[in-house]
Amino acid sequence: MVIRLVFLACWSLVYVLAATPTTSADRPRLTIYTASQREQVSAMTAAVARVAPEADIDWVRASTGIVTDRVLAERGSPKADLIVGLAASSMVVLKKADLLAEYKPARIEELRSSFLDPAPPYSFTGMDVYFPVICMNTAQASAERVSAPLRWQDLTASRFKGRIVMAHPGSSGTGYGLVAGWLQSMGEERGWDFMDALHENVASYQHTGSAPCLKVAQGHHLLGLGLDMRAAVERAKGAPIASFVPVDKVGWDLEAFAILKSSPHQAIARRIADWAATREANEIYAQSYSVVARSDVSPPEAMALPHAEARMARSDLVWMAENRERIVAEWTRRYEAKSAPRQ
To answer: 30-67, pLDDT tens digit by residue?
Structure first.
């Protein structure tokens, strides 16, 4: 497998994984855009190479907002064939822009109904649920005798001033899931009031969903609002980090896959989409996430988020898609000054 680092215009640094060791002018080349975590992409790369051995397949990874904006920007000159591991709310945006092919993968009747594209024409399928969580550095908390926040409102307490990092909702799907979840569960007026108060305690907004919990695991900050999977991975490595969902529940989104309508390789793309709905694929997703599309596949104990399904707030993915531009613009107007530099 060849791994090479590239810069793409208007993107943050991404990497491309070439799934075959050699390329040839007479072999089809497919490009898959993804916002999935690196560990998950690595496992999917190997599996998809077996599914489509006759093709050269490049995986291009960036954060959710960046992938979404890139596909929209490329509508006049498309570069990707498939998207695997992008927020379902972003898939709704791309579907409304008429960029997704109509395709229903084989045996999707075996998947949870909540993971299926809810409106015709059928264009995308969910893979797993990703949760924003509160992660906490347990070594710092113990040394300072700081109690864990139990509700979202607890994060506005003065003891947390300057000690919180959060995923940026414009570039991170995890960050947008947090903001959209608060606005849906609290109502817009109370939601923005809460974020105004939270902003006073935030040290910086990070441009990936993984960064907040990674920085907490490294001891740079006490609390992070970020991706559940990253907290679990760092804890499994021995980092002093705990993660939890507040009792007043959390907004969420699905990772999903779809074929781009513009792809000249529809037959191969459909074969990959069929694989993405299989048990084998779901077992890969379950290595990273607590809830996956197949109800008969469970994560390893180390990756499971306690009470995950019980603490999922009602989440309207169509509303999230339709209001994303407005919400991100308002959030940026209020809070962008504390955004971390893009790497």
So the answer is: 999 999 988 899 999 999 999 999 999 999 999 898 99
Cα–Cα nearest to 148, from 202, 157, 214 = 157
Instruction: Residue 270: give the domain boundaries.
Output: 2-129+254-309
Length of the chain: 343
Nearest Cα neighbor of 85 from 116, 126, 57 is 126
> Of all helices (H) and strands (E), which one includes residue 259?
strand 253-259
Residues 84 and 165 both lie in one domain: no
The Cα 259–Cα 341 span in angstroms is 33
Which residues, other chains included, contact 58 with Cβ-Cβ below 8 Å and sequence gap of 6+?
Answer: 16, 17, 18, 19, 29, 30, 31, 32
Q: How many domains does the chain have?
A: 2
H-only helix segments in the chain? 38-51, 64-73, 88-96, 138-144, 173-186, 188-201, 211-217, 228-236, 266-276, 279-285, 317-335
- Residue 115 tokens read as 């993971």
- By the 8 A CB rule, do 126 and 255 touch? yes
Whole-number Å distance between alpha carbons of 152 and 166: 13
Query: Do 25 and 124 lie in a common domain?
Result: yes
Q: Is residue 55 part of a domain?
A: yes
Q: In this structure, are residues 50 and 20 in contact, taking their beta carbons and an 8 Å threshold?
A: no
Asked whether residue 245 falls in the same domain as residue 265, the answer is: no
The pTM (predicted TM-score) of the whole model is 0.81
